[in-house]
Amino acid sequence: MKPHFTLRNAFVAALVGFLLALPLYTGLSGNSFLLTLFTRIVILALAATSLNLIMGYGGMVSFGHAAYLGIGGYVVGILAYEGISSGFVQWPLAILISALFALGIGALSLRTRGVYFIMITLAFAQMVYYVAVALSRYGADDGLTISRRSQFAGLVDLSNRTVFYYLCLALLLGTIYLIWRLVNSRFGMVIRGARSNERRMRSIGFPTFRYRLVCFVIAGALCGLAGALLANFTNFISPAMMHWTRSGDLIVMVVLGGMGSVFGPTIGAVALLVLEETLPFVIGRLGFPFFGDAALRAAEYWQIVLGPMLLAIVLFARGGIYGLLTRAERG
Amino acid sequence: MLYFLEQCLNGVQLGMLLFLVAAGLTLIFGIMDLVNLAHGSLYMLGAYFAATFAALTDSFVLGAVLGLLATLVVGMAVEVIAMRRLYGRDHLDHVLGTFGLLLFFNELVRLIWGPAGMTLSLPPALLTAVEILPGVYYPLYRAVIIAVALIVAVSLYVLIMRTRVGMLIRAGASNREMVSALGINIKLLYTFVFGLGAALAGLAGLMQAPILTVQIGMGENILILAFVVIIIGGIGSIRGAFVASIFAGLVDTLGRAFLPDLLRLFLSSDAASTAAPALSSMLIYVLMAAVLVLRPGGLFPAAGR
Q: To bridge B206 with a disulfide, which of A270, B18, B50, B111 should be the other Cys (CB 3.0-4.6 Å)?
């Protein structure tokens, strides 16, 4: 029997505890910025978690996962614009349409392997992006403001920041549980088997293409849900939601946190976005005594630090943060 | 008809620029097995260097030559400092690491040259038009781009197929250990190949600079197009990159020029003016998806892959 109390589990428990308790702190201190930041983090963690299902467990590196974020968002935005603001219609539709797109994209893309797969998913995401740019009725390039968040017949009030945060967090934890159950089921075994040796899985008699496709569709649908949340969070949709660098960000989150572990993407999303928020500040503070105003100016260009940092993580920290914890345990 | 001819030439010109970027990308991919997302940054750097040197020396040609050399040096430095450590890793590691480099270069350029773009103006001698057919004029500079890229394509072919260095490059692509066991400094060879790819990207960037403005992120759009091109052509195949570049350039340019009118034949003019821009931007990706579905290895799959 595996020990339950490990460094990894303690870290994950601390993180979940922190996320659960955060609204208490922000409510007491009145620091609503922190709550807004973490709502965004939780939503993007949901998207990264869905990407991890295909990337970490299925070995399908999708470079176009932000497309579903955009599709989910646009479904909510367009319905709201056309006067249907019921969340009971918007959200299931966002999930369904993302799943349909994933079905089409997956059916074509999964015929390829390796770099070809990375690039064909990118190509499909670009197509969706350009469709959004051309939707002149819905703001085209400039995007569309959503005047009213999804309505749930008075059951849940999304305009309340704390309620919205807890809803996102509940959906994230629910998704993580779902994926944990999924990858440890027979279905998950087939997916993981197909990653390590597809030919062998096929010769045992599993139609791996169908399994992988279903996996791809589930990931797309979950990311569509994240898109619906994101549109409600920002009250705004635009093609920038699915710019290709956003897909890159999602990959970074998954790899930074630790691929192929259910909590990894959440850790990665928290790490990356907190880093984004604090790096300018840290550079300014640390550099000020030595370089004076130059450090404050350099703080604006924080990506100059983030870029090499990513490279260093790739080079020296395989398995991301979760992998580091695992290695720390083994000593 | 004349308009069609002009658009065809523009398509070929775009294809030629794409080829310069894609050739470097496919060389690096085919030989070092490295996916380089930072290739577009070298394209951008080429343009910035050329604009800076041209402003300093007051000469377009001198600026271009110095810019090209500077990009070559930066490319080789990047290979020695970072890329060398990525060979033999998983493709996902390449995507992530070079994505980090791309962020780094964008910020570096913003730090050095500022957020506003630059312009690189042409000497008056290049601003004229040439008569390509009796009574048909075409901008001289665009013709020069086509000519330069053609010369580069031929030299590249000769370099790789007919010289000793090219033989070593091809040998290094198929068996790295064997080549180094025969006493060849394979690390130096790889640095050279990466520098060559960087210089080609820089050349494309600085030639494009007078037509568009020099700005941050200018390399990203062409990077994605170049990836599309090498996927269509077959990864690692320079011949494939050449054919696919021209094909993609023509499809993109002709699509943008004629699709609106074509759609108007079938759709109401309102629907056509909405659909046309989206469809013409997508056309090149549709082409790639179609090629991949029909021939998952590209049009000219490189041998032994």
A: B50
